[in-house]
Amino acid sequence: MKKRQNSSITVRRMDFSFDAKVPRYWADNSPFLTHTMNALSATFPVGERFFVDSVRHYRDRITNPQLKQEVSAFIGQEAMHAKEHESYNDYAAAHGFDMRGIEAEIADRIAFMKQNLSPERQLAITCALEHFTAIMAESMLTTPDMYENLHPSMAKLWLWHAVEENEHKGVAFDVYQEQVGDYWIRVRAMALTTLLFTFNQARFQTRLMYEDGQLFKPAAWLKGANRLWGRQGWFRKLIPAYLEYYKRDFHPWDSDTRALLDKWKAELQLDDNAVKKAA
Ligand SMILES: [Fe+2]
Ligand SMILES: [Fe+2]
Predict the structure, then answer these.
(1) pTM for the whole thing?
(2) What is the pLDDT of residues 233-243, one digit of tens each?
(3) From the CA of 82, which ligand is nearest?
(4) For residue 133, which ligand has an atom nearest its CA?
(5) By CB distance 3.0 to 4.6 Å, which of 169, 190, 210, 216 could disulfide with 252?
């Protein structure tokens, strides 16, 4: 089994609160980009608890002691992400956005998956979504255009989350390789997850824009769509990294982000919040 040296994984206690000083459109002053982030965040609390459950299912069977420790740190980090994004979702809901409706819809889907899919497939879906979060996070940490124009308290939340998604990007994958290891289940889950993830993300974004009275403003859509999918678009640039996942010998640490993580951990002074660490 191919297993690369992960970075250390640190569980940090965070406690974000977003007050009235955070503007309604905190991402580059743009309703479109703000709703892109709102749509993502609405799916995080329930989504990340699903990741935790799908990995925890295998915890007692893991033979590699280092991986076992990493699983505990992974669970600690994702639990903290779920908690902090709940706080973010409360902030967005206070602006009148229907975060609760999206959360409830995602919760229904996850309940359906838990009832109808095998633990192997649930873990494969988690690995697929962890690849999405890892490549989006890496892109955020390496693209000044993505983080420089965010409101400072929002930037701190999203950058902290991006750092930790990168720290633990290999954990669910290594559990999958050790406990399941089937290539076709892994890539089929990715293909299906890609369809559902992009479709849902577009649908939730449209819904939030509609409820916010922004749906029929073509300039906002064009500018936002160009930022995401244009020549230098944030999402468009992710396509090569996304496709790597389909290689038979892919591993999340093929992209070695340890130096990048060290830079951001220092910049954000994250290790002041450390609770425990898996090396
Ligand atoms: Fe997370
Ligand atoms: Fe994650």
Answers:
(1) 0.93
(2) 888 889 999 99
(3) 1
(4) 2
(5) 169
